[in-house]
Amino acid sequence: MTKAFTFGGARFTIRTAGVFFLASAVFEALSVSSAVPLFGDVRGGVVAVVYHLLFVGLFLGMGVGLWAGTSWGLRFMFIGTIFYTFDRILYLLDDSARAAEATSTLDKYGALLDMEGQSLVTQVMDIATLLPLLSWWGFLIYLYFKRDYFDSSAS
């Protein structure tokens, strides 16, 4: 039995999130050669390409899984959340990679900041990392409570 599509409700929310994950996969693919802060520095080349391609696959799987509403979609979302959490924790614990990212992001203006200014930039980067991570976990909890969406045919 197919349910009518309405604006609002779990089906709309979950499918909309699926569309955003698919869009994230596209944006990640477009930035496949962009350097990433990893292992104590900002890395480019093959490391960056592999890193971005891994996230392209992750976002594609989560987007399709959320849209389709199959049982594997919820499992894929859980696995993706664990992987993303691990990645963000590594980022938060890698002070030298974050400092290198801040320096490369601020480019020549970074030299104008004193230590207090650089500390403020780092705090903003921490908040910009933690808030999406907490939101991601909040969405996973929402999916757990709406898990019946994944049990039924959501076509």
Q: What is the helix tally? A: 6
The rounded Rg comes to 18 Å
For the sheet with most strands, the description reads: 2 strands, antiparallel
Order of helices and strands: HEEHHHHH
As a percent range, the share of strand residues is under 5%
Q: Between the first and last Cα atoms, what is the distance in angstroms?
A: 9 Å
- Mean pLDDT, to the nearest integer, reads 86
Task: Return the domain count.
Answer: 1
**What are the low-pLDDT stretches, counting only 5+ consecutive residues below 50?**
none
Coarse morphology: elongated
Broad structural category: mainly alpha
Number of strands: 2
Summarize the amount of helix as a percent range.
over 70%
Strand order of the largest sheet: 1-2
Structural commentary:
- The protein has 155 residues and is mainly alpha-helical.
- It has one domain (9-151).
- It contains six helices and two strands.
- It has helices spanning 9-30, 45-68, 71-93, 95-106, 115-145, 148-151, and strands at residues 36-38, 41-43.
- It has a two-stranded antiparallel sheet.
- Strand 1 and strand 2 form a beta hairpin.
- The chain is elongated.
